[in-house]
User: What shape does this take?
Amino acid sequence: MKATWLGMAAAAALFVSGHASAAADEAAMTALSQKSACMSCHGLDKKIVGPAYKDVAAKYKGDKGAAAKLAAKVKAGGKGVWGEIPMPPNAAVKDEDIKALVNWILTRKY
Ligand code: HEC
Assistant: This one.
């Protein structure tokens, strides 16, 4: 129940992002990222096992195909872009959640 609510809150925040405050988006997306277990390996500003979200945003700045490419990578897992430590597949995370997370990651300030 709680997990569903968080997912809906995040989706709602995305849909109304033109009206909702940036802080509300940030809170909802951080919650979705925690719920999806991304935060055990990724920090907003610092590398943990995987790269910091802000470093990912910097790397793909101006790359129009990045969102689709990264969503596929998060789903299937992979290695070799940031080092030899692989990201395991995140098969349990819903496709729309992965898309929302990747879009949010790509808009981070760096
Ligand atoms: C067990 C640790 C782990 C978890 C859990 C994890 N990641 Fe990763 N992630 C990594 C590692 C390690 C890399 C670097 C892979 C590479 O070098 O290609 C990475 C890379 C990435 C990248 C950049 C990929 C690229 O090719 O540049 C994105 C975006 C990303 N992760 C998002 C996520 C999201 C969103 C989640 C949650 C749904 C998540 N990760 C969960 C470890 C993890």
